[in-house]
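Renewal narrative, Specific Aim 1. Our central claim is that a sequence can be written position by position from structural information alone. The example that follows is taken directly from our test logs and has not been curated for this report. It begins with the structure tokens describing the chain, in the order in which they were read.
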């Protein structure tokens, strides 16, 4: 009979305490909960806020550029767009230069909602920045950017 395979519990503790991926995932979930709670009165999630903000551009972006900015695959982005489109917050149209491509834009209702929730985001973000001292915000942001 073969010996059962096991991983020592100490290894689990080591991974818990040193794994960058786990730490970033945990922090991302905690941050998402904070922003979701702040945006809940407007029936908006932090992901939807980021998506709306990513469409706030001088000219309507295509799906690929938004997916790249948000680090999402195109299928996931397409699914995320649907509720916002149903709410009349965004429009998705065929790109006049390339019929295979789609361009997305904020509607007036989307721009109005974005302008209403932006002060809430600023307040929430400011409180989070207040938890970080001595340049930690910039260090964290710069460190995360290196991983992209």
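The sequence written for that structure reads:
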């Amino acid at each position: 009979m073969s010996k059962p395979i096991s991983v020592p519990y100490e290894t689990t503790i080591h991974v818990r305490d040193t794994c960058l991926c786990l730490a970033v995932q945990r922090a991302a979930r905690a941050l998402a909960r904070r922003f979701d709670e702040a945006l809940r009165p407007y029936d908006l999630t932090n992901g939807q806020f980021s998506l709306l903000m990513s469409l706030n551009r001088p000219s309507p972006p295509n799906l690929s550029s938004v997916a790249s900015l948000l680090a999402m695959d195109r299928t996931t982005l397409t699914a995320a767009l649907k509720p916002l489109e149903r709410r009349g917050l965004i429009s998705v149209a065929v790109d006049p230069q390339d019929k295979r491509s789609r361009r997305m834009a904020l509607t007036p209702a989307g721009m109005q909602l974005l302008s209403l929730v932006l002060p809430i985001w600023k307040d929430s973000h400011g409180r989070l920045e207040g938890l970080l001292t001595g340049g930690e915000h910039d260090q964290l942001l710069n460190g995360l950017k290196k991983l992209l």
